[in-house]
Amino acid sequence: MITNIPAVWLLIGGFFLLIILRVPSAFAMALACVITTLYLGLPLATVAQNMVAGMNSFVLLTIPFFIITGEIMSAGGISDRLIDFANALVGRFRGGLAMVNVLACMFFGGITGSSAADASSIGSIMIPMMRKKGYEDDFSTSVTMAGSVQGVLVPPSHNMIIFSVAAGGLSVGRLFLSGIVPGVVLMIALMVFSYALAVVRKYPAGEPISLRNGLKAFKESILALLTVVIIMVGIISGVFTATESGAIAAIYAFIITFFVYRNIPMREIFPILRRTLKTLSIIMILIGSSAAFGWLMSYLQLPTVVAEAVLRISHNRYMVLLIVDAILLPMSMVLDGAPLILLCTPVLLPLMTQVGVDPVQFGVIMMLNLGIGLLTPPVGATMFVGCALSGISMEKLTKALLPFYAVLVVILLVITFVPALSMFLPNKIMPIIP
Predict the structure, then answer these.
(1) Helical pair 78-90 and 62-75, crossing angle rounded to 10 deg
(2) CB 33 within 8 A of CB 299
(3) pTM
(4) Burial 38-60 (b: 16+ CB within 10 A, else e)
(5) Does 182 have pLDDT greater than 90?
(6) Using an 8 Å Cβ cutoff, are 359 and 353 in contact?
(7) Which residue from 388, 401, 397 is spatially nearest to 116, judged by alpha carbons?
(8) What is the DSSP letter of 315?
(9) Cβ–Cβ under 8 Å, residues 256 and 113
(10) How high is the pLDDT of residue 423?
(11) What is the DSSP secondary-structure string of 68-87?
């Protein structure tokens, strides 16, 4: 049981109060930790020690490598080639551009590992293209935003790496594998739904692509698509670790962007490095602050209390999973992805393992919840990208996204209640040896 109720209110309530006051998440966590530590009479050095310990993880070296890989390939015009290849595959069908959009988001998400990067790179090309072909702006934007959610599921998802650290060092390879099938299921669901809407709204069909042009598009995109293959094959085969795979992917992206495709001059590497450092600094201070926050939650026995409270409602695994979704989904609407992972994992993971849910499956469930949250007001980062790209209001985009929310929630429930979708590839390719 909690031994100090006021301290819990100071920690949790203080954090959310600071968030409401628009204090950045990392600083809100750090300030809440300092206030609570002072109240408990603990030395302030405890906060600093836990922040440093949280950032002192070899696995975290993977993040800057994957970020710079995505930045290089995004700046290098890789999205154009991926869109051409997707168009060659599905562009001929009615509503083909919507399906091209979803498929291109899957391809590009497998390079950047980021929903916002996916939406901005693919959306900047596809939204104007769809507008010219007679698609409404709100539909073009909403299908781009929904498709970008695949970026948080498929490797090399940055959030999966953060979850690995928050969960105590889960295998990054198994986590990456666990997101592939759910990502494909989500892609198929969004493509089928887009086709159905296209038929109802009488959107145009695209022009068939000849075999010759299709092979040309594949040839142009294959080098970019090999990035995720290099990452996954290297990790699965044991040739190199997740961190080493990130470094190799970054070098590979640098070579094909600046020496093979050559769409941008070498001087562009400096803005790319600057954006990478900016993103990395945000992530690292979040990880440090959340480590101290998580230590205080454990000190106050909060995970135990939450688990006991949920289990008093039901011991049924499926009911507990539904309750966890009901907790995560609203929280994803008010917290960004990294803070959500770092705050909720230490609290909910013990509960999941207690009812027999594999931590890897829980990671996929959390990823899709936060992916949906990225599309919702008031703090959905990907939604802001969509509004900026299309020029439509958040209110209008939210209304256009309503049917896509329904699709995403249905897939979330399927992934939640059918563990084989998440666990088949990890158990088949990287089984845990007793």
Answers:
(1) 80
(2) no
(3) 0.83
(4) eebeeeeebbeebbeebbeeebb
(5) yes
(6) yes
(7) 388
(8) -
(9) no
(10) 92
(11) HHHHHHHHTTHHHHHHHHHH
